Amino acid sequence: MQLSHRIEHLTGGGSDGWDVYHRARDLIAAGEKVVELTIGEHDIRTDPAILKAMDDSARGGHTGYAEVPGVAALRDRVADRVQACSGVPTTRDNVLITPGGQAGLFSAHCATCDPGDAALFIDPYYVTYPGTIRGAGARPVPVRTRPGDSFRPRAADIAAAIVPGAKSLLINTPNNPTGALYDRATLEGIAQVCRDADLWLISDEVYDTQVWEGAHLSPRALPGMAERTLVIGSMSKSHAMTGSRCGWIVGPEAAIGDLINLATHTTYGVPGFVQDAALFALDQGAELEAAVAAPFRRRRAQALEILAGQNALHALPPQGAMYLMLDIRPTGMSGSEFANALLDAHRIAVMPGESFGAAAAGHIRVAMTIADDAFAAALKTLCAFAATRV
């Protein structure tokens, strides 16, 4: 029996981008010791107080079907948080709770694109973006950025990439994989293109609590953008709740109403005890968010000091998120060649830039997700390895 073209071609007929990651996991399964700097997973676990709140909720009986749009108190709390950060009036009617940010991305594209429509996204991109767009039945159209621009998109390049049938643009700031934070001028240019071309803007803001330089600005706050922007948020990165799968979409009330209808026919909501834990976590305020972000701030400082003492690699100092993007083109190797050779030689696993799109070719992404001492040692080894290839 033949499966659908959509499911068989979700990755466009090529790699899913996770080849080195899978190689590393296979080595670990075979008993090898591998330093994993691949996936954006905190080295600390979810705070015990959050887990207690989840346990208390489950044992208290919140284990049945939860409201599909999300528990009202959590929707209110997310709305308050978003309004406080953006200045845009926001109520629970602007919020849908989703099973993580990934489900939010898929739902947002289902809401904005009909089958065959074009959906633009910025390159480099998080690995799942093109497949998410294909899964929603749309055509992924990358907008390539430049290392010399710190991987921030130019409005003219976005406008030039618009094709017939284009309905949406997906951006991510702070950015995975590059660590770039889009400044106001960049976001104003993006907003102007969206208004001129009548595009929906899907803004992935899951790293909004991990900002090292500058300040996060949600494009929903710009003039004329609240009615055409869907913001994706998540508890995963801000509160180290990756496995709990709790995120949200914030957008116009009418769009959220239709997205609730989609959730009724797909995910049917998020477990109530998980939502209660998320509400507890958000109620702890910025202090807990800062504590979760603190290890990455420290390791960024470590990394910049280490990188300043060598000449083999060039780094784009990350302004946000939990990653380093390193330019390994002086070695003459592709990102994939470098990552595989590093894994072979030193059992250190990093992600090739090519996993994140053509714009990141000749780069690697390093996740700052292991203990400080181990991270520093691995990065020094990586730099020494690169020096032998220059």
UniProtKB/TrEMBL annotation:
* Source superkingdom: Bacteria
* Cofactors, names only: pyridoxal 5'-phosphate
Is Transferase found in the keyword set?
A: yes
Record EC number: 2.6.1.1
Which is a GO BP term held by this UniProt record? amino acid metabolic process
Which GO molecular function entries does the Swiss-Prot or TrEMBL record give? Answer: L-aspartate:2-oxoglutarate aminotransferase activity; pyridoxal phosphate binding
Please report the organism this UniProt entry assigns to the protein: Antarcticimicrobium luteum
Occurrences of domain Aminotransferase class I/classII large (ranges)? 33-373
Instruction: Give the main EC class.
Output: transferase
Question: What Pfam families does the record point to?
Answer: Aminotran_1_2
Q: Which UniProt keywords apply?
A: Aminotransferase, Pyridoxal phosphate, Transferase
Designated name of the protein? aspartate transaminase
Family, similarity comment = Belongs to the class-I pyridoxal-phosphate-dependent aminotransferase family.
> Would I find Nucleotide-binding among this entry's keywords?
no
Q: Catalyzes what?
A: L-aspartate + 2-oxoglutarate = oxaloacetate + L-glutamate
